Model the fold of this input.
Amino acid sequence: MTLSYKQFCLLWGKGLLVAAIIAAVAGLLLGDGDWVIVLYQGAAILLVLAVVFLVIGRMMKELHE
Done:
């Protein structure tokens, strides 16, 4: 099974979005400490990457239809 670039971008975008949510929830559950800042920064970076991948996937989807 091969993935097209559109499917690849949408799949990675959804995966990164789930990872960002998990990192943010883990930061909330840990409370205070140095690791919370790292988790929030990681969640922010993952969220930006997820949005970029999802936008690219949607643009490719619209171009091929």
